[in-house]
Design brief:
This protein has about 750 residues and is mainly alpha-helical. Among the domains are: about 70 residues, Serine Threonine Protein Phosphatase 5, Tetratricopeptide repeat (Alpha Horseshoe); about 70 residues, Alpha Horseshoe (Serine Threonine Protein Phosphatase 5, Tetratricopeptide repeat). The chain is about 80% helix and about 0% strand. The chain is built from 44 helices and no strands.
């Protein structure tokens, strides 16, 4: 009997197991299980884990509209905007009446500054649901962004009529009223928001920011402190108070708040580095490092903390320590994305961009929407000389995550170098929109305006930067340079002095003062300034570079050489000092000394190609082209795709009877790396010419001349190609142009003979 009962129980268990296993094989049950798990993770703030579960659900059923929508919310939380948009569009395609998705898409368009489409999206939602408060708010914000404040405010009033007790609507109204310069009305709206929800910390932060902008410091402080009292464990509230004190230049009070926050949040892994982050934000790197070191000792297994610590070490150029910590993280998890990005940064700083590019390409293969990886890949590509590819990666970074400030900054600098002022204005506008309290955007815009001779705009932007960051020497130095050019020498001197008062080691301000004194024929003051800088920073390689430049300008070459030798001794990797020292030695006729300088630099930094290029140039200039070739080849062993080196080697081979096929391959490497460079176009054209491909050669020479129409060599090469192409009229045109530009051109006699052969017009 007993055995029968056991058998019955066993059969029951088997049946139950069969039911369970049967359910687990049901795709609908499995996808719902993943969906519910994702929802739970989302509620816990674990957005990456939630995204993975929604992705699992979509692998089972790609038409699962709800999962697409929830995945879009995860991506939005993670700042992955391309993924957010993609999933919203999929959700809407499958479920057009999902108004939550339609609204999210509209707000995404608004955030992406696509105001017209945001407006259209809001109007579409309102045709489906005229009583949608959120759609009226979206429309109001879109109209305000298109500089239509009156219609915007009217639309916002419609939202309030539909739901007059919604605090968030009054906050939004206040912001729109501020945009319309209705400050008193905005204040009333903010007060109404607080009245409706006095315990909303987000409302209090908004109110505090309003009063801070109005410089009503007492009311602002009350709002920020009240927010902290309501949510003492919320780092965001304490950060608002820190920013408030920093805005008033009350750094001690800001630090006190940060210290208190660090104690209160000591048990919160997401916030216990509050004080370290504060020191980093205010530029106190030594204390930031000390705080991170202490935290790392207490929490050695916290990978996020370790990666943040590594970032500060990298910025301080303490690369060996950074590499050790990074290796420890990767030993535990070889695929840890942030640590791999850190390793790539270290390699980039070590002048090893090819290795960094390989690592970052791998990161992006696994995580194509990693904005930081795109940004760092852009830096590595830029160092490798691939400027176009670098900009492509920075564009990818801001496409994936539009709030990637550093990528906008890199794009702005690239646009400034190319004098593409339309792109510069776009990028700077994004920078200022993202961080309106930071000076960098205004400084970059000032530089662009200066290039366009908009001196009033330049001055306004620099003064704004000084107002935002009165301790930052950059804007003082730039404005001092402007005053020097305007012959307002007294003001210039005062500005450079102010910059040095804030930052005694600022090389730009010291150089500005030196150039100002030289301009005024006050040589003694210029020398005293350079020597004072060395006395202040006797171990600064940069200080000796400034002295070296000054003595070079004064043609005191022995002192210039001594200063630059000291600079290189202090920092064997200082490429500027090495280049200047070699130039001085060459100017003094010490060719062998210059070669020794570059050779020593190569031994010290075998992966820094600049010294190879300088040494090869000296060998080439002194007629030792075989030695130059060997040096270029060694450089390409270090970095096979370095475009400058490949270009120089290709031209060298073409000029001295080297293998034309080998030269052509190097010229193609250079062209791929620098597709916009006129030099690489000319070299590739010269290779085609020597291969007998005159049509291809002509195309390249013409492209080079578009960039530099007054380059005699480009005219010479194009004239030869036209001559071979049986186009005597164009050949004559370019030969004559060459002789007009430079009658003493090296091949001028050959050109005159060619013109004689071509005959008269």
């Amino acid at each position: 009997m007993k055995s029968l009962r056991c058998l019955g129980l066993a059969l029951l268990l088997v049946a139950a197991a069969g039911i369970t296993f049967g359910c687990s094989r049901d795709p609908n049950t499995r996808k719902r299980a993943y969906f519910e798990s994702g929802t739970q993770y989302y509620g816990q703030g674990k957005y990456r884990e939630a995204a993975l579960q929604f992705q699992n659900a979509l692998q089972i059923d790609p038409r699962y509209a709800e999962a697409h929508y929830e995945l879009s919310r995860c991506y939005a939380r993670l700042g992955i905007w391309v993924g957010t948009q993609r999933e919203l569009l999929r959700a809407i395609t499958l479920q057009p009446d999902n108004m939550k998705a339609q609204l999210s898409l509209g707000n995404l368009m608004l955030a992406g500054r696509d105001f017209k489409r945001a407006e259209a999206q809001a109007k579409f939602i309102l045709t489906k649901n005229p009583k949608s408060v959120e759609a009226h708010i979206l429309l109001a914000n879109a109209l305000a962004s298109m500089q239509n404040p009156q219609d915007s405010l009217e639309e916002m009033q419609k939202a309030l009529q539909l739901d007059p007790e919604r605090p968030q609507s009054y906050l939004n109204l206040g912001m729109l009223q501020l945009n319309a310069k209705e400050v008193k009305a905005a204040e009333d709206s903010f007060k109404k928001a607080v009245e409706l929800d006095p315990k909303s910390t987000q409302t209090l932060l908004a109110v505090g920011n309003f009063y801070q902008a109005q410089r009503r410091w007492r009311e602002a402080e009350q709002a920020f402190r009240h927010a902290v009292e309501l949510e003492p464990k919320n780092a965001q509230m304490r950060a608002g108070l820190v920013r408030f004190y920093l805005a008033q230049q009350k750094k001690d009070l800001a630090e006190q708040v940060a210290r208190e926050a660090s104690k209160v949040l000591a048990d919160d892994p997401t916030s216990y580095s509050f004080l370290a982050e504060f020191y980093f934000m205010v530029g106190d790197m030594n204390r930031a490092l000390a705080e991170y070191a202490s935290l790392h000792q207490s929490h050695p297994k916290d990978v996020k903390l370790t990666n943040s610590y590594v970032q500060v070490l990298i910025l301080q150029n303490r690369l060996n320590e950074a590499a050790q910590l990074t290796d420890a993280v990767l030993k535990e998890n070889p695929k840890e994305g942030s640590a791999l990005i850190n390793r790539a940064q270290i390699l980039t700083r070590q002048q090893r961009p090819s290795e960094a590019i390989t690592i970052l390409t791998g990161v992006l293969k696994n995580d194509p929407e990693n904005a930081l990886a795109h940004f760092q890949l852009g830096l590595a590509q830029s160092l490798a000389g691939n400027s176009e590819q670098a900009e492509k990666e920075w564009r990818a970074a801001v496409q994936v995550r539009p709030n990637t400030y550093m990528a906008w900054q890199a794009l702005a600098r690239a646009a400034l170098r190319k004098k593409d002022f339309q792109v510069l204005d776009e990028c700077v506008g994004r920078m200022i929109q993202l961080l309106p309290d930071q000076p960098q955007g205004y400084v970059l815009r000032a530089e662009g305006r200066f290039e366009r001779r908009d001196l009033a705009g330049t001055e306004a932007d620099l003064k704004k930067a000084m107002e935002l960051a009165p301790q930052d020497p950059t804007a003082y130095t730039r404005l001092g340079t402007l005053r020097t050019l305007q012959n307002r020498n007294g003001e210039a001197e005062k500005l450079f002095t102010q910059a040095l008062a804030h930052h005694p080691d600022d090389a730009g301000a010291v150089e500005g003062l030196i150039q100002l004194y030289l301009k005024q024929k006050q040589t003694g003051k210029a020398i005293a300034t350079a020597e004072a800088q060395i006395a202040r920073a006797p171990n600064s390689s940069a200080a000796y570079v400034l002295a070296g430049r000054l003595y070079t300008d004064l043609r005191d070459y022995p002192k210039a050489e001594a200063a630059l030798q000291k600079s290189v001794t202090l920092d064997p990797g200082n490429a500027t000092a090495i280049a200047l020292l070699g130039q001085i030695q060459l100017a003094r006729g010490s060719v062998e000394a210059a070669k020794a300088t570059y050779q020593r630099a190569i031994q010290q930094n075998p992966r820094d190609l600049s010294s190879y290029l300088l040494l090869a140039a000296v060998e080439e200039k002194t007629g030792h082209w075989q030695k130059a070739r060997e040096i270029y080849e060694k450089a390409l062993q270090v970095q096979p795709d370095h475009p400058d080196t490949a270009n120089n080697l290709a031209y060298l081979l073409l000029q001295h009877g080297g293998n034309t096929d080998v030269a052509l391959s190097y010229a193609q490497v250079a062209r791929r790396g620098m597709p916009e460079s006129p030099n690489t176009a000319d070299t590739l054209g010269w290779a085609y010419y020597q291969k007998g491909s005159y049509g291809l050669a002509t195309d390249m020479f013409e492209e080079a001349l578009k960039k530099f129409p007054n380059n005699p060599t480009y005219h010479y090469h194009l004239g030869l190609a036209c001559q071979k192409n049986n186009d005597p009229a164009r050949a004559r045109e370019h030969f004559e142009r060459l002789l007009k530009l430079n009658p003493r051109y090296a091949q001028a006699d050959d050109v005159r003979k060619a013109l004689a052969q071509l005959g008269s017009r």
